[in-house]
Write a structure and sequence with these properties.
- With 244 residues, this protein is α+β, with helices and mostly antiparallel strands.
- The chain has 2 domains: 140 residues, Sandwich (Jelly Rolls), CATH 2.60.120.10; 73 residues, Orthogonal Bundle (Arc Repressor Mutant, subunit A), CATH 1.10.10.10.
- A 4-stranded antiparallel β-sheet has the order 1-8-3-6, covered by helices on one side. Strands 2-7-4-5 form a 4-stranded antiparallel β-sheet. The protein has a 3-stranded antiparallel β-sheet with strand order 9-11-10.
- 34% of the residues are buried.
Length: 244
């Protein structure tokens, strides 16, 4: 797992970015190649709720250095569905860089730091170096797997995992002006949304409170640790056995 760059200690440097990528998604690439790829890029700080990418934007490439972002789609009636959460060490934008504008939006859920690459430079290097092109192909396949896992999660996730996802989605869709992540939802509406009953949802919320993941009041759930909350979500590769 990639280690986030501490936003409070100092401004991240390109060397920090190279180390993060070399220890994670680009572990198979020589360090000289990664160093060349980050040339011309810049570190960008994002506030909670900031829209990083909108549907049909020109493709770009970024690496998450710290924070939590979500990739989502929405329908014309305002409904949204999150297809991926991106954390420190993850790449953003590879499919759009390769295949053109993507039908998704990317939003920072909490204050985040993203390294934005010089997209033209990256494309040139990928055309000249088959190892980079292969890495991008593998990354695009992983994004497809994210979508498949999201579909599977709708069927296999526990009530706890469905509650965590629904709360994150509700809170991220309407971030508070002060940056707090608050889902305005009653226990009954939450139960209806995740296909359970109020008593089970109340127990799940009690567990999340005990773990200091949320703070609740009537009709209101504040998410205290979004990154840790996102790790509650169903994953085929994660050994979690919550029952409800």
């Amino acid at each position: 797992m990639a280690r986030a760059i501490d936003r409070h200690s100092r401004e991240p440097t390109r060397d920090d970015v190279v180390r993060l990528l070399r220890g994670g998604v680009w572990a198979s690439l020589p360090i000289e190649t990664i160093t060349s790829l980050v040339e011309g890029g810049r570190v960008t700080s994002l506030s909670a709720g900031h829209m990083v990418y909108a549907e049909a934007d020109t493709g770009g490439l970024g690496a998450v250095l710290d924070g939590l972002l979500r990739v989502y789609m929405h329908a014309g009636d305002g409904r949204q569905v999150t297809v991926r959460y991106a954390r420190a060490g993850d790449l953003l934008g590879v499919p759009s860089l390769v295949g053109g504008p993507a039908p998704v939006f990317v939003q920072a859920i909490v204050p985040a730091i993203v390294f934005v690459f010089d997209a033209d430079r990256v494309k040139r290097e990928a055309r000249a170096d088959a190892s980079i092109a292969r890495n991008f192909a593998e990354e695009s396949v992983h994004r497809l797997y994210d979508v498949l896992e999201e579909l599977a999660g709708n069927a296999f996730a526990s009530v706890r995992q469905r509650v965590a996802r629904h709360l994150l989605d509700l809170a991220a869709a309407r971030p508070a002006s002060d940056g707090a992540l608050i889902a305005l939802v009653s226990q009954q509406d939450l139960a209806n949304s995740v296909g359970s009953v109020r008593e089970v949802v109340a127990r799940v919320l009690s567990e999340l409170r005990a773990e200091r993941l949320v703070r609740t009041s009537p009709g209101r759930v504040e998410i205290l640790d979004p990154v840790r909350m996102s790790r509650q979500l169903w994953s085929r590769m994660r050994d979690q056995s919550y029952s409800a």
